[in-house]
Amino acid sequence: MARTLSDKARKEAEAMVKRFPHKDGALLNVFRIVERDMGYLDEDAVKISAEICGMPPAKAWGVFTFYTTFKTKNDGKYRMWVCSTLPCALSGSEQLYDHLKETLDCNEHGTTKDGLITLKKAECLGACGTAPCLQLEDDYYENLTRDKVDQLVTELKRGVARPAGYTQDP
Ligand code: FES
Known about the structure:
2 domains, four-stranded mixed sheet, Glutaredoxin, alpha+beta, 7 helices, binds FE2/S2 (inorganic) cluster, elongated, 43% helix, Arc Repressor Mutant, subunit A
């Protein structure tokens, strides 16, 4: 059975579309609204988003699959992106990623068996000056070390939703 969007979220998405000169320009914002309402994006959610933005579903699907930031059905409760672009890689992000993969016992872009954490790689997160870094949901963790990522994982496993050490707003 196809999943549906709530009336409230549909109204919000339609209002968002009206703020753009071209309806399809609102797609990323509509994805966010639909993701929040439906929990994650899948074929049904992308079709609904495309319809609201007045564009072909295949085009919307192309945009959805281009980005790694949208929540998908198999994602864990927390998504963690380790930056793998050169400045971070030169500062040890690849080793940190491998260490996390081993610690979490999950595959490349995989989710832990308890469904708690999904580990992903990301292109430059825009914090090259404080490499290596990772993003946990909406928070950044910078100048990472093996000890810091171990602490992060320990806290998540303890049920701390927003472990200490993230970058505070200035
Ligand atoms: S290279 Fe990692 S934040 Fe830019």
